[in-house]
Design goal:
Helices cover about 0% and strands about 45% of the residues. It contains 1 helix and 15 strands. The relative contact order is 0.24. The protein has one domain. The strands form 3 sheets. Strands 1, 2, 4, 8, 10, 11 and 12 form a 7-stranded mixed sheet that branches. Strands 3, 5, 9, 13, 14 and 15 form a 6-stranded mixed sheet that branches. The protein is mainly beta and about 220 residues long.
Length: about 220
């Protein structure tokens, strides 16, 4: 039996150096195109496969000239969601992180720090020739463990922007931590692995200004 190579998910976070808000534009993608389904029951969620390698890329752009940027710190936060709830059963949660410790990076808990010094230049292919872009990619990866479940994701990034006039500016950006969980509904006792073997469901934080369905478990089930 030929062992298949693990799939790879790319988390891409984009910002404009002149934007007023602090929200990152984000995208989760993989070659098969099924990392962020737009239709069906799991629309709005991010689905990782067990053993999947997860990479991170940050892109900055502007219509004004600038010399680039560097990552000062980058933190990925995963808040576990309920995997079992109901009358007469104990409420259970997913593990604190879907990622596991490897020789490349330690996973101490729900917050994972990606060293800024490990972000290296990455090629850009802008659609608009007048829009200046630079990109940095983390030269390592996170590994998804065997545990399945649901997590709310937050991504916090601090960068130093290098302006064309030689000045520098520090900015902080994030996937909005005040947003609602995308699906907004706690899962039933049947977990994601029962419907899709080997899949790990990752609920993402919604962008600033948007509202999820916001459905909470009924009081009698708590």
């Amino acid at each position: 039996m030929i062992e298949k190579k693990p799939t790879t998910m790319l988390i891409e976070a984009n910002f404009d150096i002149d934007q007023v808000g602090q929200s990152l534009e984000w995208r989760f993608s993989r070659k098969d195109g099924h990392g962020n389904p737009l239709k069906g029951r799991y629309a709005g969620g991010i689905y990782f496969t067990v053993g999947e390698l997860t990479r991170v890329r940050v892109r900055a752009g502007s219509y004004s000239q600038f010399n680039g940027f560097k990552v000062l710190d980058c933190t990925l936060i995963t808040m576990p969601q309920v995997t079992q709830i109901g009358a007469g059963v104990r409420t259970e949660f997913a593990p604190v992180s879907p990622f596991v410790t490897t020789t490349k990076i330690a996973i101490p808990g729900a917050s994972v720090s990606l060293p800024g010094s490990q972000f290296v230049p990455s090629a850009v292919h802008p659609d608009d020739p007048e829009y200046n872009e630079f990109a940095l990619e983390w030269n390592s990866e996170l590994t998804v463990g065997k545990a399945t479940g649901r997590w709310e994701i937050a991504f916090v990034l601090t960068v130093e922007i290098q302006r064309a006039d030689g000045t520098t500016e520090q900015r902080a950006f994030s996937f909005d931590p005040e947003g609602e969980v995308g699906s907004g509904v706690s899962p039933p006792k049947i977990q994601a692995r029962d419907a899709f073997p080997g899949m790990t469901a990752m609920s993402t934080l919604m962008p600033e200004g948007e509202v999820g369905s916001g459905v909470s478990p009924p009081k009698k089930n708590q």
